[in-house]
Design goal:
Elements (H helix, E strand, L loop, with lengths): L3 H14 L1 H37 L5 E4 L9 H4 L25 H10 L3 E16 L2 E10 L1 H7 L6 E4 L1 H5 L4 E5 H6 L7 E5 L5 E10 L4 H4 L2 E5 H8 L8 E6 L5 H12 L2 E4 H4 L1 H39 L1 H9 L4 H35 L20 H27 L3 H7 L1
Parallel strand pairs: 3-8, 5-7
Antiparallel strand pairs: 1-9, 1-10, 2-3, 2-6, 2-9, 4-7, 5-8, 6-7
Helix pairs in contact: 1-14, 2-12, 2-14, 2-15, 12-15, 13-16, 14-15
C-alpha cells in the first residue's frame, strides 16, 4: 500500500533542496498560463467588440422587395416558340414596388413566432439634405425607435440627445455624426430635407447618432416611421423593410428560407449579409487560439526538461530509495508528485498574473471617434478561459512529469551504486 504522506514529504524535500530548478519550472508554468490568459482575454474581447460593431447594425433576417428581372419573358409565353431554344438579350427588371405588401399582417405573424425576439418595420427614402448652400444626398430611415432600442445597441450609439426625444417629437431626427460634422449642425438645429419630387420639409435635430461605420454616419438620418410616411405621402401600412431579431441566431438561415417561400419576398439572413466579415472573424479567432495553445505547449516542454534534469541529478537518491525498500512505482509517484505540485502552484499563480495583466489592459484608455462607447481596451473575463488554463497546466505537467518519472521507475539501483 502506497504511503502518500512519506511520498509527498520526499517530493517536497527534493523540490526545496533544488529551489532554483523548482522556481524555474514553476515560473515556466506561471508565465505560460499568465500569457495565455492575458492574450486570449484581450484578443477575444477585441474580436467580440468588432463582431458586435457590425452584428448590432445588422438584423438577423432582413425582409424586403428585391429588384430582379422576370423569370418568364413575353417570348416564353408565345406558343409558337414554346418548343424552341430562346435567347433574350438586355433583359430589364420587372416593374415592382419597394413597398412590402401586407407588411402589417407579416409583422403580427412574426411577433407571435416563438423563435422571434422582435420585428421592426422600416421605411427608407432617398433624399437631399439642405443646410444653407450645402446640399448632400443621403437616406432618411423611418423606424420604431423604442423597439430598435430594445433589440439593438442603438441607445449606446446616440452620443447626444436620447431616443425618447425622437419618439416624442414628430418632426425630430437623429442625425448621423458624419453629416452633423459636414454641415456644422448640432442638437436643436433644423435641417431641411428634399424628396426626389422636390418637396421640402424642415426637421429638428434631437440627437446625434454615431455607429462607428462611416458609410452610415455620413449619409443616414433616423426619424419616426410616421414622419417618413408623411413626407412621402404614403399610408401607415407603407413599409419597405422588416428587420428581425431572433432568440437563437443559428436559426437565421433556415428561417430566412422559410419566410422567403411563405411570403414571396426577399429574406436575407445575417450570415449571407456578412459573409466576408464572418470569415475575417473566424481567422482572427483561429490565430488567437493557435498562439495561446503554442504558449501552453512551450511551457509544458520547459517543465519536461527541468524534471528530466532533476531525475539525472537525483540518480543516487533514487538508488538509495529503492535499496531501502521503495518500489519503482513509489519512485514514480514521488516524481509525479513533484510535477503536479509545480503544475498546481505555477498554474494558480499564472491565473493570478493573467488576471492582473488583463485588468491593466482593461484600464488603458482607448478612445476613437469610430467607437464612441468604447473608453478602454476591451477584455473578456470569461471564466471558461481560466478553467482551460488551470486544466492545461495540470495536464501538461502530468505528461511532462510522467515521462521522466517512468524512466526513474525503471532505474536499476545496483548499477547506480556500482557506478558511483
Amino acid at each position: 500500500m502506497t504511503n502518500w504522506k512519506v511520498i509527498l514529504n520526499i517530493a517536497k524535500t527534493h523540490l526545496l533542496t533544488k529551489m532554483k530548478s523548482t522556481v524555474t519550472a514553476s515560473l515556466g508554468v506561471t508565465f505560460g498560463i499568465g500569457a495565455y490568459i492575458t492574450l486570449v482575454s484581450f484578443m477575444t474581447g477585441l474580436n467580440e467588440m468588432l463582431d458586435s460593431l457590425v452584428l448590432n447594425q445588422t438584423p438577423h433576417i432582413h425582409m424586403y422587395n428585391d429588384i430582379e428581372p422576370s423569370e418568364k419573358q413575353p417570348l416564353h409565353l408565345a406558343k409558337e416558340f414554346s418548343n424552341g431554344f430562346n435567347v433574350v438579350h438586355s433583359i430589364r427588371p420587372k416593374i415592382s414596388q419597394t413597398k412590402i405588401h401586407n407588411a402589417l399582417p407579416i409583422l403580427d405573424y412574426l411577433k407571435k413566432n416563438a423563435h422571434v425576439k422582435g420585428a421592426t418595420p422600416q421605411l427608407r427614402s432617398q433624399i437631399f439634405y439642405l443646410s444653407g448652400s450645402i446640399e448632400l444626398g443621403g437616406n432618411l430611415v423611418g423606424i420604431d425607435v423604442m423597439e430598435e432600442v430594445r433589440l439593438s445597441n442603438m441607445r449606446d450609439n446616440i452620443i447626444e440627445g436620447s431616443p425618447e426625444a425622437l419618439k416624442n417629437n414628430e418632426n425630430g431626427i437623429l442625425l448621423g455624426s458624419g453629416l452633423a460634422k459636414k454641415m456644422s449642425l448640432s442638437v436643436g438645429n433644423r435641417v431641411q430635407v428634399s424628396t426626389a419630387e422636390g418637396d421640402v420639409f424642415p426637421l429638428k435635430i434631437v440627437g446625434i447618432y454615431q455607429s462607428g461605420l462611416a458609410e452610415i454616419d455620413n449619409i443616414q438620418i433616423f426619424t419616426n416611421l410616421k414622419t417618413v410616411q408623411r413626407i412621402q405621402g404614403e399610408a401607415q401600412n407603407y413599409i419597405t423593410d422588416i428587420n428581425i431579431k431572433l432568440n437563437d441566431i443559428t436559426m437565421a438561415t433556415p428561417m430566412a428560407i422559410e419566410l422567403e417561400k411563405q411570403f414571396k419576398i426577399k429574406a436575407t439572413d445575417i450570415n449571407e449579409a456578412n459573409a466576408q466579415f464572418e470569415t475575417g472573424s473566424n481567422i482572427r479567432n483561429i490565430i488567437t487560439y493557435a498562439v495561446s495553445i503554442t504558449l501552453l505547449i512551450v511551457a509544458g516542454f520547459g517543465i519536461y526538461n527541468i524534471l528530466n534534469m532533476l531525475i539525472y541529478e537525483k540518480m543516487k537518491d533514487i538508488a538509495i530509495l529503492k535499496a531501502t525498500g521503495f518500489s519503482g512505482r513509489d519512485v514514480q509517484y514521488i516524481f509525479m508528485s513533484q510535477a503536479m505540485i509545480i503544475g498546481v502552484s505555477g498554474g494558480l499563480l499564472g491565473l493570478v498574473i493573467g488576471f492582473i495583466f488583463s485588468r491593466i489592459i482593461d484600464g488603458i484608455p482607448f478612445e476613437t471617434e469610430a467607437l464612441p462607447t468604447i473608453k478602454t481596451f476591451p477584455v473578456n473575463y470569461q471564466i471558461g478561459y481560466y478553467v482551460i488554463g488551470i486544466c492545461f497546466a495540470l495536464l501538461s505537467t502530468f505528461i511532462a512529469g510522467y515521462l521522466p518519472a517512468n524512466k526513474a521507475r525503471k532505474i536499476d539501483p545496483v548499477r547506480i551504486i556500482r557506478g558511483s
